[in-house]
Task: structure prediction
Amino acid sequence: MGSILKIGYRRPMECSDLYPLLEEDKTRTLTEDLDDLWHREVREFHISGKNPSLLRAMRKVFSWTEYTLLAISLFLGIACNILKPLLLGLLISLMLAGGSNMSDEERKWMYIYAGALCGAALLQVLAQHQYYYKVHILGMRWRAAIVGLLYKKVSV
Result:
C-alpha cells in the first residue's frame, strides 16, 4: 500500500497504477457462477416442485470452507468476549483476597489469570478482524454477483 500511496501523493492515480483484480473477485466470474446456479434452481423447481430461491443459489456460489471459517472466527470472538470479564473477575477477587501478603501459589494464579486475560484479548482482536474482513469480502462478492445478474437480465 505504501507504493500506491506515494504514487497517489505525487500525481493523480490511473488504472495502470492499481494491482490487477483477482479472478474470483471479477464480476463476470461471479455473475456466471450465480447465473448457472440460478438456472439449476429453476430446473430443480420443474423437476421436484420445490420453489427456486435466489438466496439458496447465492449461498452455493461460495464454498462451505469460507462459511466455516466465518463461523469459527465468530465463535472465537464471542467466546473471548465472554471469557474476558470472567478472567478479570477472578483476577480482581484474587487480588482483593490476597492483599499485600500473598502466597506464592496465589501469586502464580494471579499471573496465570493476567496472562490468560491478555491472551483472550489478543485472540478476540484477531478473530474479530478476520471475521469482519471475510464478511466484507463476501458481501462485496455477493453484491457484484447480484448486480451483474440483474444487469444481465435487464439488458436482454
Remarks:
- The chain has a mean pLDDT of 89.
- The radius of gyration is 25 Å.
